[in-house]
Write a structure and sequence with these properties.
The chain is mainly alpha-helical. The chain contains eleven helices and no strands. Helix 1 runs parallel beside helix 5. The protein is globular, with a radius of gyration of 18 Å. The termini are far apart.
Length: 228
């Protein structure tokens, strides 16, 4: 258990690295004082340009992916989880959740971080093979909704809602232990709720009609509209 707790601490500290803030400082900008003030890739891209937003997204995704993959490779299945697949799954997923919590509530920034979308995606991609494909499909849903509406917040919420459903569905399709499937559903639902709660401001602005659109999706649609 001590070794597992150290993995949790390490994953949290890695997740707490504020790449959005660091990229902004590299460019001479405090990203917290620009755009929406969020540390995530969307705001970085909006303020500094698309290439920097992509870089932030990849780094934030990596914060979730790396500890999950490394835990599986180096720690394996703890002895206390032997013969209990649901517990092994829970201990493994908890490492990814710790990274997400580090991103959302970073100790270095008075627990004021990002919204957890990219880091959650990375953590679930690393949970191979059961959650990897659902996570990829969730990313596809995010992309399609963003391209269709130009609202990243809406896309993030829709993808978050879809993830627990797909996680349970794939777990059942792969004939995993019922307790293990329950863990998949519970953990992905918890992450989905966290993402939705972090987007409550976006949801309020969507309802009020004041939510900002992303230029890379909106611009292409406007060009297409003007050509008709």
């Amino acid at each position: 258990m001590l070794g597992w707790l150290l993995w949790l601490v390490g994953a949290y500290l890695l997740g707490a690295v504020p790449f959005g803030l660091l990229i902004g400082r590299l460019r001479g900008v405090d990203i917290r004082a620009q755009g929406s003030g969020n540390l995530g890739a969307t705001n970085v891209g909006r303020v500094l340009g698309k290439p920097w937003g992509i870089a932030c997204f990849v780094l934030d995704l990596g914060k979730g992916l790396a500890p999950v993959v490394c835990y599986r490779m180096l720690a394996g299945t703890p002895g206390l989880a032997a013969g209990r697949p649901w517990l092994a799954a829970l201990l493994w997923l908890a490492v990814g959740v710790a990274a997400v919590l580090g991103h959302v509530f970073p100790i270095w920034l008075k627990f004021k971080g990002g919204k957890g979308v990219a880091t959650s995606l990375g953590a679930l991609l690393g949970f191979y093979p059961v959650l990897t494909l659902p996570a990829l499909l969730s990313a596809v849903i995010w992309f399609v909704v963003t391209k269709t509406t130009a609202y990243v917040g809406l896309a993030s919420v829709v993808a978050a809602i879809a993830m627990p459903i797909m996680a349970v569905g794939f777990g059942l399709a792969m004939r995993r232990d019922p307790g293990e499937v329950a863990v998949y559903g519970a953990v992905t639902l918890a992450l989905a709720l966290l993402v939705i709660l972090r987007h409550r401001g976006n949801i309020a602005r969507l309802r009020a009609g004041t939510e900002a659109k992303v230029a890379w999706a909106e611009g292409k649609r406007k060009t297409s509209d003007n050509s008709q």
